[in-house]
Q: What sequence folds into this?
């Protein structure tokens, strides 16, 4: 078991622990320690406490800088969507951490290995262990691989209002008048695809499609924001 | 106004901002911005969002390392006592931040300047500004002056169970038998002072006093922990 997580971490994330005992601790539940007394084993909870705070800061700082016009309320909602049991348990599964957790027999039988709350904890404890072993830069690199690309693939779009965000970005330099136009509707009646573009008074800023005009407008605003970001970088 | 906060920060904390606009932003409430439109002012809320996460991590990491045997549940309770409105608003007052907040007239009349929730926000936004301006080391230094000494003066003692903590530390090397003995009771009947010492099987580990035996025992355990820490450093 131990060999394969090392191999997976190296292959998928170029991570090699200096202190392997930190990785062991991060992947061990109290129930396993209780079943193996006198082995000096530690369970993940303390490291998880630290990992949670590490993730909070790295995610907060990233979205704070990436969305310079996003008000606090939205930053808080976005962070809550990124730093939550649903997200972290999914990331833990993607990283295959679920396969390497050391559980007591009762917990194993009870299905703990697939329990989102445990997987969320393990994602945090892994990050805590990596932070203790190699410091913040290693965690940043890991999080830039596992979490942040999902901002671009739309995993957290339900909490980001791109239309408002675009309006705010454009208003930095004074009033901004933008409008959304329907370019195209295609497909069978019950499965229409809408194509929408967003314009300011001079040019087309972005284009998006979706199953409703509202979704297509959000996609167009997101496209415009990405184009503006590329231009401004 | 601006001059004196600069002077206070320099004198009390050896802090000088490179980008003064960050400090302005950290001390400005939305109500003030609303009353002074077209001046390009920003209010503290976004920076506070960041400062909150910075404080969470620095406090978490400090207590994680300082109390290496403290279980997660207690770490979480201790962090909650340190990172909370009551504590942060008190720190803001100690730093005299309350004197420098820029408020709208209505908020001023409504007593916002003394409102704990606002002072807590301002403490976080100050930390966020310092972090953006000078990075984590400057915040660490500030927090080591403003927050961490209070762990030694007992400000958070109500959430730390020193007796259990001492037991846990001593058990690291196997079973530990300790006992608490009353050394002295003094004072008038309704205001007794108790003096208690804690011993292991060989020696006296610490001494403490208090208005009850329970308080004196906690003080003795705390004294023993400090003595052990000095010995182990």
A:
């Amino acid at each position: 078991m131990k060999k394969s997580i090392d191999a997976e971490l190296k292959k998928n994330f170029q991570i090699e622990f200096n202190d392997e005992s930190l990785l062991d601790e991060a992947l061990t539940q109290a129930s396993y320690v209780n079943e193996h007394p006198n082995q000096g084993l530690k369970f993940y909870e303390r490291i998880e406490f630290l990992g949670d705070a590490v993730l909070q800061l790295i995610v907060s700082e990233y979205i704070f800088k990436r969305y310079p016009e996003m008000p606090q309320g939205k930053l808080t909602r976005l962070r809550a969507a990124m730093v939550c049991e649903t997200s972290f348990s999914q990331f833990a599964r993607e990283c295959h951490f679920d396969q390497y957790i050391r559980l007591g027999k009762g917990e194993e039988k009870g299905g703990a290995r697939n329990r989102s709350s445990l997987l969320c904890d393990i994602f945090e404890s892994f990050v805590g262990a990596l932070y203790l072993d190699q410091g913040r830069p290693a965690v940043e690199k890991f999080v830039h691989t596992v979490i942040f690309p999902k901002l671009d693939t739309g995993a957290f779009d339900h909490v980001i209002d791109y239309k408002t965000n675009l309006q705010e970005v454009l208003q930095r330099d004074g009033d901004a008048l933008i409008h959304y136009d329907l370019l195209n509707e295609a497909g069978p009646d019950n499965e229409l695809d809408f194509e929408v573009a967003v314009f300011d008074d001079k040019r087309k800023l972005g284009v998006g499609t979706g199953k409703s005009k509202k979704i297509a407008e959000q996609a167009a605003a997101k496209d415009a924001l990405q184009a503006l970001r590329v231009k401004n970088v």
Q: What stands out?
A: Chain B is about 60% helix and 10% strand. Residues 161-232 of chain B form a domain with the Double Stranded RNA Binding Domain fold (CATH 3.30.160.20). The beta strands of chain B are 179-186, 193-199, 204-210.
